[in-house]
C-alpha cells in the first residue's frame, strides 16, 4: 500500500519502517539476536564514543511538526507530525580528524547489491561530501550470506551514474568484495567498521597530501 | 510553566521553541527581517552547499515516536511523539576535509555571555569531538549589540569547568572578542562564519601536523 508525503511524493518503505525500529531500540534487550543493522551500528558507535575512538551518531528522523500539546505538569506531546525525506545520509561524525559520512543498507540478494536501495538525494549528498574531502561510504549487509562490507562512495557513484545511462541496476558482490573492505562481526563492538575505514584510508589519496591544504 | 520529558527531567525552553521555528522556516519569506539566528545559519549553510564551499546541516530534533497512523492514499501521520534531549550539538558537517561541529546561541546581555545557555551534554560532546581533532565552536550573537562571534570550544570548556568549580557564570564580551572571531553580517551568505573558521584554522595547532597521523 503506497503512502505519500504531504508534497505528494511517494513515501519510501525504509522511512516507513523507521519509527518501528526506533521504538524497538528503546526497549530493554537481553541479547543481540534479532538486532537490526541499524541497532548494531548504533551500539558500535556507542562503543566507539565511550572509548574515545570516534564520535559518530545516527541523525534523527526529520519530521514536520504541526501540532504540539503542552499538558500541565507533564511532557509536551506532539499530536500531529509528518515524516520528511532526509536530505543527507543517516550517519556522520568525526574519526581522528576525518569527517565520516555513511548509509547502512541490507539486501537479501546473494550475488549483487541493487542500486534501488539508494536515493538520488543520498548520492548527491555523498558527491558533495567527497568534494569536501569527507570519507563517504556505505555499510552493506548481504543478509543471506551473512557478509558485511564497507564500500566506498566513489565506485558506488560510478555504478549509479552508469545505471542512469542504461547500465546495470546492481553492484556485483565480486566488485563489492574486491573494491570494498569486509567487516567481520565481533563482540566489542558488534560491527568494527572503523577497521575497514583504516584500510580505506591507507589506500586513499585523501591521506596523502591534498588534504588540509598542505 | 515547566514541562517535563517522559523521563521526568525538565523540558528546556530552547527545545520547546524549536517546533515553532521549524514551521516558520518552511514558509515562504519575502525578506530577511525577523529571521532567527537559526534560520540565518540554515540559509548560510544552504548557500555554502549550493556553491560547494561546505556541507553543513542542522540536525533534526530527536523525537520519540509512539503512535503513527497510516491513512489510505495519504501521508503517514505521527499521532503521538515526545521531544528527546539531543545528545550532540545542533550543527555539523565537513569543510575542506575538516569536521565542523557547533552550536548557535543568543543573549540579550551586553557585557558577557551566560554559561547557562549551554548544557552539560553539549560540553561533553564538544570535548569528545575535540579529542578527535574536530573543529568545535559556538556561534554567539549579542542581540542588543548586534554583534556575532565564532568562539572556539576550548576556551568555552575552560570557562565551563571553572564555573563548576565556583568560577564566574558567564564569559566576558572582552574575552569573546579577543579569543573569538567576529563575524559581520553580509548578503551572501547572511552569516559568513566560514571566514571566521579560516581565521580559527590559521591559528590552530590542528592544522600544523598533528592531524591525520603524520
UniProtKB/TrEMBL annotation, chains A, B:
Q: Where is this region: Disordered?
A: 1-25
Q: Which reaction does it catalyse?
A: Endonucleolytic cleavage at a junction such as a reciprocal single-stranded crossover between two homologous DNA duplexes (Holliday junction)
Binding residue positions for Mg(2+): 88, 90, 103, 122
Site (Transition state stabilizer) found at 105
| Keywords associated with the record | Cytoplasm, DNA damage, DNA recombination, DNA repair, Endonuclease, Hydrolase, Magnesium, Metal-binding, Nuclease
Cofactor stoichiometry and binding remark: Binds 1 Mg(2+) ion per subunit.
Instruction: Tell me the cofactors it needs.
Output: Mg(2+)
* GO biological process terms, semicolon-separated: chromosome segregation; DNA recombination; DNA repair
Among InterPro entries, the record links this protein to:
Resolv_RecU (IPR004612), Restrct_endonuc-II-like (IPR011335), tRNA_endonuc-like_dom_sf (IPR011856)
An example Gene Ontology molecular-function term: magnesium ion binding
Q: Which GO terms describe its cellular component?
A: cytoplasm
Localization terms from the record: Cytoplasm
State which Enzyme Commission number(s) the record gives. Answer: 3.1.21.10
Q: What does this protein do?
A: Endonuclease that resolves Holliday junction intermediates in genetic recombination. Cleaves mobile four-strand junctions by introducing symmetrical nicks in paired strands. Promotes annealing of linear ssDNA with homologous dsDNA. Required for DNA repair, homologous recombination and chromosome segregation.
What protein family is recorded? Belongs to the RecU family.
Q: Which protein, by its recorded name, is this? A: Holliday junction resolvase RecU
